[in-house]
User: Which sequence fits this backbone?
């Protein structure tokens, strides 16, 4: 009986820690970056190329325009990604757009709300891309999960930037 109480105590303790995570961490933030050995104008042009997008984000299956606005800010797109055989539809909205400087996207993928801010910086004939990402959720339980997967999310985004670097430098 004592062993059962100890096990239950451990389970309850871990559950409280997990559920407390959502109270402490309202969102998960991380930064990734890459330096590309090409001029900023060329890098930015390739970054915007929707045909190249599927090459550096292989999980992306389709991207369709919902509404495209002049100046791109406020434009929305429907994206479908495939993750482990499961297709997930999401909405992408352009929050900020400054050619050769910055693009900010907001993604709504059911329980995951993500903002990606890309900043482009020229350094001689090279371009540095810094990506600041913020993940949160409308679901309290999902908010509790994101901090534990921060490393995985960051690694995934870094891999995408590394793939883009390879494509951009070709």
Assistant:
């Amino acid at each position: 009986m004592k062993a059962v109480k100890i096990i239950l105590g451990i389970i309850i303790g871990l559950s409280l820690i997990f559920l407390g995570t959502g109270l402490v961490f309202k969102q998960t933030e991380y930064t990734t970056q890459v330096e590309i050995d090409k001029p900023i104008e060329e890098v930015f042009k390739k970054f915007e190329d929707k045909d190249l997008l599927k090459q550096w984000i292989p999980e992306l299956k389709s991207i369709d325009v919902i509404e495209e606005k002049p100046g791109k800010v406020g434009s929305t797109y429907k994206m479908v990604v495939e993750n482990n055989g499961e297709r997930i539809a999401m909405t992408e909205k352009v929050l900020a757009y400054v050619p050769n400087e910055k693009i900010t996207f907001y993604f709504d993928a059911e329980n995951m709300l993500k903002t990606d801010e890309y900043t482009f910086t020229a350094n001689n004939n090279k371009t540095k891309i810094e990506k600041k990402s913020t993940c949160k959720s409308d679901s309290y339980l999902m908010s509790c999960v994101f901090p534990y997967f921060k490393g995985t999310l960051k690694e995934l985004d870094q891999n995408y930037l590394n793939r883009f670097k390879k494509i951009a430098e070709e």
